[in-house]
Amino acid sequence: MKKIISTSNAPAPIGPYNQAIFAGDTLYISGQIPLDPKSGELVSGDIAEETKMVMKNLEAILTEAGLTFEHVVKSSIFLSDMGSFSAVNEVYGSYFNEDTAPARETVEVANLPKYVNVEISMIAMK
């Protein structure tokens, strides 16, 4: 059985999907982009600021589900330019304890929704 997780503290979906779904004890969080949920505007220009907005959106969804970043077991990071890896990794890493950080992949893609520079999805467990 699945349970839909939704919060106004993260951007509303821009297509036929939900912010997150609990399937049993596993939470699947849809990819988040640097969209400010309050203003509806994209945060752009500085990849570190964009990544912070993405992580805040992910945190809002985790919080709504009653979880934290410590519950995350897998992350997927999509970048429009692998040259941004270091800056994104620095921000991303500040949200995790290195000893218990989740599994992860980071890939460069040709394009992302709304032509953003970074998108991150996560899987977490209760």
UniProtKB/TrEMBL annotation:
MF terms from GO for this chain are: deaminase activity
Task: Please name one Pfam family that this protein belongs to.
Answer: Ribonuc_L-PSP
Listed under GO cellular component are:
cytosol
| PANTHER family (UniProt xref) | 2-IMINOBUTANOATE/2-IMINOPROPANOATE DEAMINASE RIDA, PROTEIN HMF1-RELATED
The family this protein is said to belong to: Belongs to the RutC family.
Q: Can you name this protein?
A: Reactive intermediate/imine deaminase
